[in-house]
Structures
1.
Amino acid sequence: MSADSAVSIAWDLLKWAVTAIKRPIRYVMSSKSFADSLQEEVQNLDDEVRRVNVLAEQARNNVRKFHDVFTRWEKKSDDALKEVRDLLGNFENATKTCCYGTLPDPKCRYQFSRKAEGKIKVIQELAQKCSGFKELDDISFIDPTPGNVPAFSASTSFVLGDDGVFESRAMMIQNIMDALANNINSVVGVYGMGGVGKSTLLVDVQRIIKKSKSFDLVAKADVSENPDIKTIQGELADALGLTEIKNKETTNGRAELLHERLKDEEKKNKKVLIILDNLWKGLELKSVGIPCGRDNKVIGCKLLLTSRFRNVLQSEMSCDKAFALDGLEEKEAKILFERIVGEKVHNDEFRPWWMKRSTDVQPSIENLVRYGYGLGIFQKDSRMEEARDRLSTLIRTLQASSLLLDNEGTDGLKIHDLVHDFVAQSILRDHPLLVLKDKDMLTTQLQNERLKSCSALCFPYIDIKELPKELDCPELRIFLLFNNNMSLEIPDSFFNSMKKLANCSLEDVAILGKLKGLQVLSCVNSNFQRLPKEIGQLTELRLLDLNYCLNLRMIEPGVLGRLIKLEELYMENSFNQWNPVEQTQPTNASLIELNHLKNLCTLHVSIPNPKALPEDLDVKKLTKYKIQIGNAHWRKDLG
């Protein structure tokens, strides 16, 4: 699949990002393995700490000051090692047994393994960071003198009334200055969505650098989407006072002259910073005349880069430190708007702008997968788990392109409201949808001619007394009904025209038997007491979600076994009245029916009565499961 196709698919997925995020699940069954791995990583970090402590002692003996990056690392390492040792010290609790020593205690093991996995990642990151502290200058420096990079304080230099820099931007400038001051870093980058203020930030950084004399020379050039090497060379030469470059006709000749000048500054021990703004792809430094190695890594000076794409900075420009730049805080954005508009900000024509929200939309990854199936975005023969893997790849691509925000340590995703609003405005051009936000829209919108072209219809918890007998929606693929009215009935003919419906979320499911193409059915939090036999006619169904159907007591025998393409079955805090194995005339669903589901790989189920568990139940095919038998729990979240 081409990059353009990947972005196109991902763009479609963004249009259905509407609800809250769910955290993915952790391993729970391998506490001993987690303990061994954690102990190994602790030993590695201990070795690194002992090595770097020798350098730290030398620095103290020579009255040197430590770089902030080292001080922060040192504190994080001390805290992390203490927490991990406490966790390992309590490992005995994770190996407790229940049932008089015959079974492991799954709760304790789950809690330990969950914590241990997170700590392993933390310890690995700290050890990797420490590997960069090789020399005395990597962790410390002599008190600032002319030519050295001075310490930098946002609180003293970046108050709004002084330099006019907002607090959030002052913090970012602080981070950039600290990174440039660190000898470990030769290339520092800033990435973020177009229009978020990267170029403006560089203007502030350049002004602060000149004021503080952190560098002897600063040269800046705009690279742009279609870089002109000659123009880039000219901008850098002008900043360096290299007037002779105008006498060079070819880019190669200009590159040689610029290279010679920068090498000469290096011989003079001059500190040179080159700023390259707005990179859309990797730039070959050699072609410009910036000294570099074979890996395109700058030599003899430092680079400060900006791009919309994180991968451009990290992969193509060998960036040592890259910072994500988000939008202004809400208060800052309002102040900036008032500065630009002036007194007109109080006029009615501007009111919708400054009242606009500035929060981030946080969609559910699981819903993206399910809606993607409903819209036919994923290949028809692809499995649900393959779709999730594909989605994860697309999310990383969009995050690297700054179209999605970084998840800040969570396992979900965040969309800036600007991107969300743009998608919302353009969505009707690709997949027409209708969201009925209040009951007054029922009489007008449901009779609208455009309903015939709708691919999605949503009733989000509005006070509906009754539904029309039938909706003329031949193109509908997704139907969502969220309702608190227990007496609401869905007419038998309601879905007659919806032959393409593939994703459905509602409570009354008996009438869905005719929708042969349905692939995803969600009945989460529904109040029905019986899953009717008609559901067994949904032979294309890939996912059935019955989570939190607290009143579900009856599933017609044989219904589950007829869902031959079912891959994922969710019944958490739901149906648990499984037919006992010895009961030859079943009156309810039996677990043995799951053996007929050859594609089943994910199962969440509760079995309070062990007598309902058949000996030959096929669980080897499951790659993910969450099973409760009596009071014992078993869980596996990755294949």
2.
Amino acid sequence: MADRALTQYVTDLGGYSSEYGSSDTMSYVVRNILHEPKSYPRYGDFTSSCVFRTYGQWWKIAPEYQMPLLNSSSQYFTTDDFVEVILNRNVYIRNVNIFETYNPGAIVRILALNQNIMNKFSRRWFVLWESKGGVPLKVEQKSSRIFRPPIKPPPFPSKVLRIEFVHDELDYYTELDAVQIVGVTDVDVDQENVSSSPSHELMECFNRKLSLSTSSSSDNGLFDLLPGEILFAILGYLSVDELSVLAMVSYLFYESCYSSLLKVHQHLNLQPYWHRISESSLEGFTKKCKNLSSLNLSWCGVYNNFFESNLLLRLLEPGTLTRLDLACCPLSDRMFKEMLSLCLALKELNISSTKSYLSSGSLQMISTLPQLARLNLFLTSITTSCAIDITRNCTLLESINLGSCFAICSFDEVLTSIANHCHSIKHLDLWRARSLTSVGLKQLAMKARHLESLDIGWCTKVLADEGAVIELVSQCHSLKKLFLTAIRSITDRELQQLSCNCALLEQLDLLGSEGVSVDGVKTLLSRCRRMLFLDLSFCPGITRDDCASLQSLYPDCSMKQSVAN
């Protein structure tokens, strides 16, 4: 039968890791990636584009940044963001065309989902294309483009794709306009050959029993003479999947690779294997991870029953966990509550981008974690009362991310509670806290004297002429990062107070500030000598020539000014 070509634009979204915009508008939201191009071939900053939350390395050197679990499992995993897109019809994918209209070059991997696999040992995700070493391809031109990577066509029909991004090399936000898929509806494919070998599955070899026994003789060469401490030191350089292969070499390596003393089994990072991990992987981990201190399951569990398994609870049973990362995980309320009930010693919890899965009722369980110091609730369904309960009970909190938490109807009450109970607060992200006013900001200013980073970007009810920003910077002398994005009423008065009180300031976002001038910025930079990042986009009083002049005067500070469409 002749192949029938079909060209489609994506029509629906699956999961995604972050977005710049707000879910009740169409400006800079991930959903803008759907359907036909709206801006291409024009180049510039379009509100109708798909835009993620961050770019560049600025967020990774900010004071509130949470370091990833640094072990060899994550050394080749660099992805910052992802988006899953869905087609109307299943096709055998032959070409992927991605329309990039601003700062192209962040895409590092594209995968397709095989939804027809029944064998639990088979991989559901197929890599169509990936950049070498997870490093984005360098793009020199400042123009829009259609990115057409040379894909490896999957031997199965698919309608779900996942695109992954690394933002480190971006000078400003990347913007996407559309995704077009070219495929065929009929090909001759032996579906039985689609499944990958069980031996390639991430942890299946851990679950297989070696035929060697403790009484059988084996020749391990000079490794038999090696002190156990040295062998563990060597194994510490291997990743989870490398250990799984080595475990099949001999009984000595089997025992050593299963040891709970290995650092990789105390600080377990499974995010790099999100596309390969499954319920059947858990049994091996429950045997090895007896003293688990940190666990990263971010992005895992999509399109499988990983988070329905009681084996996951067995992994947490020792109660030794102090850090848990569950970003973008398809958790049920029941499983989340049961997991937290076994993790009462938690100090760090990340459940960002779980709004589609966890209800506000289940988030109430967080208030039972008295030792919590870091909490990331970005893009969750947390409510005002729940946030207040958490801040009243988790008084050791130093870092809270409440960005894009649109179910909170009174941020002033939440900030009052933070100011009254969380006396060690250092980092606070209130991105798009729509109900926040100067009242809440003044409450924070009175008591949060140790504040190092504050993001009140797009908090449009905060009015600078009411004095809250000036009061804040006059009290919080430890500030290193302050994002005032789209607070239009910021003027040179606020910059003057910043220059007098915040000598440690390193990052400042003034996007859309209508009352700042070149002289005000010069005064600020002349006194805040540690400044590394300054966004002056859409400031009417500062032209592109002004920005270039400021950049030449202060070369150590990266000046940003977005290009209007």
3.
Amino acid sequence: MARKSFIDVSPESDFPIQNLPYGVFKPEPASLPRPGVAIGDFVLDLSQISSAGLFSSPLLSGSDCFNQPTLNKFMAMGRPAWKEARATIQKLLSESEPTLRDNASLRQKALIPMSKVEMLVPMTIGDYTDFFSSKHHAKNCGLIFRGPENAINLNWYYIPIAYHGRASSVVISGTDIVRPRGQGPPVPNSPSPYFGPSRKLDFELEMAAVVGPGNELGKPIDVNNASDHIFGLVLMNDWSARDIQGWEYVPLGPFLGKSFGTTISPWIVTLDALEPFVCGVPEQDPPPLPYLAEKTSKNYDIQLEVQLKPAGKEPCVVAKSNFNHLYWTVTQQLAHHTINGCNLRPGDLLGTGTISGPEPDSVGCLLEKTWNGQKPLSLNGTSRTFLEDGDEVIITGVCKGLDYVIVEARKNGVRLILSLVNNLSAFGGKAQYVKWAQEAGVVNISTSADSFFADSTIKDYYKAYIKAIVTRKNSLSGVRYSEEPAIFAWELINEPRCGFDSCSSTLQAWITEMVAYTKSLDQKHLVTIGLEGFYGPKTIEKSKINPG
């Protein structure tokens, strides 16, 4: 059964109890900054929880890491401490735990409405590096500037390419960006470079890893241990002045075309929260050199979206991409960063580079979208080649189950959610469902997804399961349900994922039949049938352009 909080968290909330991202905030303008965790529409003040003595685990007991103006000290403590904190916070926020739930005085001090707080950059960023890890982005840029003969340089397939950015101009989401001034290539009929406000200002859809424990100078981090040095991920927009960048980048790379502003989201989503959404990586061909060869390579299924809002107009979606398009993983990026002995420090920021996919609507910047201004983008009656003054860029990221149907009914004050989920982690996985089915007299259960869902006995078993839940009568051996409001889910498991793509028409037919059966049982109380997502570690970044 899915974990729930005593705090009323909307199903559409970005911040369920399974997420719990970390940030730094001020509850009042004159308050000191302090660490917090997002839960529903509230921020949990970790300094209050710490002062109340509720972090009593071995590594956190007596620590002042949550009485700091940044998260750096907590980040430096490493994964064992992060796991202790997450376990403590989840327990305190759980609906069955009275410690915080029944302490009105502490609740009032520790839970602050998110609408009333000011979010800050959550860590001191000593150094910022931006990688170039999306093959689709690299190819598109190469086609634009070099042509098909040399779209991707040979070294790109061997090296997670990066440049050193400017940490001082990393700002929090919502900070206005002033249009940068600088040199650009000569305009027609002029022998001299252009100088003035950038005429090709662009966004870049990125994410970034936040470094936890660092490494000593001269001691590289093994790629297979690199995840222990990553505290979590943020959304990032590495604003780019394409004309300034194009004029200056040979031979030493970006400078003024990038250093005027980089925006990050206020909440850091931890790798533990993202673990249910681990997925495979694109084939790396040629194979990476041994120091970048991972025993297990991981990407994350994070759906990314960019909206562009011209001043005075409604926002338009201009890009839909996914973190899993990255060719080089964040752990490979970190390991490569240290292979020469470079020392990373807690709070360092490692940007992924623009995350573009293979389709035209999945490219992560206007440079690609408009093919360097040659193909204007239509936006509700107006057009764009690059950003104009007053434009607002909104970037969102969310994790979901790939495709599943959720059937919601309300009966006798009980909210029942019957979901067909493709995530592998909860309820003991397929082995548990096989056990329940065997207890119900079902034998010879196939491990093939198509055979599993097509089996008439399996269908009968699950229909009995649905009926037991909807009627609240335990009429089948092995059925697990609760008399309390709850979420009921079946994990439909077929490695590595069991979505519509892998099970195609068989799974779709199975889901359709189960939904129809549920409707036949309780049409009166059925309020929702549709595609939904699993809980989502979600965050948002938005900033607008001001004239220079």
